[in-house]
Amino acid sequence: MRLSAPFPKPAPESLVMHAYRTHTCGALRSADVGANVRLSGWVHRKRDHGGLLFIDLRDHYGLTQLVSHPGDSGFEVLDRLRAESVVRVDGQVVARTADTVNPNLATGEIEVRVRAAEALSEAGELPLPVFGEPDYPEDIRLKYRYLDLRRETLHRNIVLRSRVIDSIRRRMVGAGFTEFQTPVLTASSPEGARDYLVPSRIHPGTFYALPQAPQQFKQLLMVAGFDRYFQIAPCFRDEDARADRSPGEFYQLDLEMSFATQEDVFSTMEPIMHGLFEEFAEGKPVTPHPFPRIAYRDAIAKYGTDKPDLRNPLVMQDVSQHFRDGGFGLFARILGEKRSNAVWALPAPGGGSRAFADRMNSWAQGEGQPGLGYIFWREGEEGGAGPIARNIGPERAEAIRAQLGLGVGDAAFFIAGDPGVFYKFAGLARTKVGDELGLIAKERFDFCWIVDFPMFEFNEDKNHVDFSHNPFSMPQGELDALNAKDPLDVLAYQYDIVVNGVELCSGAVRNHKPEIMVKAFEIAGYSANEVERQFGGMLNAFRYGAPPHAGMAPGIDRIVMLLAGAENIREVIAFPLNQQAQDLMMNAPSAVSEKQLKELHIRLATPSK
Predict the structure, then answer these.
(1) What is the distance between the alpha carbons of residues 518 and 62, in angstroms, rounded to a whole number?
(2) Which of 70, 233, 336, 548 ranks highest by number of CB atoms within 10 Å?
């Protein structure tokens, strides 16, 4: 049930009672039997037992059972009220009989015999039920979010969110950080997503942007001499919704540290993140710190993703050497087509049956792939079973089995081609096999750092080199690396923290030297003038003495989603937008008046339907 909380003690009965309540609906216990009390709340559920009326009265703190007899004062009021009406009752606390005690309810040993009732607000017919929490279409839930928030699970999630944020604040202050607020109206910045723009009335034809993150401002705070900054920061990005990302706006624990290396960030934040999760994990194991560090390229090669779920024990390996000299013609031909091509093997312990292999092959075809090659090993069969095993022979099949550490009753699946193209599918296959075979230890929180991200990537659509991560990061090797290396070989001091396959945040050691920043942006196609125009404020600040600094920004919404065990991030946000970035309750976005547009010097050019 809902969290109980302290509430002011009731005044002595000789004094006038509070207008609405002496106790909350989660406060009364067997020690209160005999007391005269006043409660206010929502009618959660009504039950008529042969004229005897039982009502579960609910407020933020919990439930209390009311009982009213025909002829009692207040019976007629309670009898006519619909569920979710708001009512005030006066009555006496009585003990439940032994056979009616509810051990699952904090107030389950008592009930209140009603002697007076007043309807404070009567509810009409509900567009969705609150009691029982049945599945309901999301558009209805979001349109009537104030009703949805009355449901037990969602209400608990939002309370959990508040408690998590409170814990974060305490832990950050305890680690020597100071909370500051940064502007919400700022300038547009190439953070990787579309900006939300706000037109200026005073300066016609110009726009503010809502911050995708407080990136520049938190770095400027370091330049200003504030050593350790944090903020529970709102961020705004005009991007599509995902299960773990809300469109429009989200909140993050934004932080920055002066005179800090990458290791300083890790050693500072690991105890905070471990302690936070341990506090709210309800006994689930949490990775002890220091957390594992995995290089980006290793994460791709072993797990098929830079967000690996380490609860899944499966690790892929390159088995190209077993196919290079023929045997299985398809793989031999693929390996010969391009030097970078490879064959990866995905182990499947316990998956050694033709039925499972065929099922995985069918799944791969449903994902748009031609199939998923396999070998499986069974008792009394030399080498292995399946078309690939027959083609490469028992010696090579045995070598693959030995390399992967597999045995009788196990299988291996193969993905061949350009790893840069197929690695995402390989990662999906790893998750699918782990899930199908029950290998994922779901009742724990497994953390890791992903480090050594490439500074740049090649943008196929624009046909030029672009930043692969945060453009304000320090390249490893600094200016020498930018001048001497192929841009695609330059690594950055960038890092992600990942838990259970969910990226909680990105972070980096910042580039605090103007000449390195100008060169990095030049490689990404920005002229020196463009860099000065877009980032002049920060560049000028760096020219007056900037400390080395580093930071990160874990997502609040994702942290709470994981701790709540929710599948969708909208289940931990009080008033989220839907997948089309609409607020169905407040009808936003909406058209504005011609008068408002004229004040902003804006003329609309909406697309024709």
Answers:
(1) 58
(2) 233
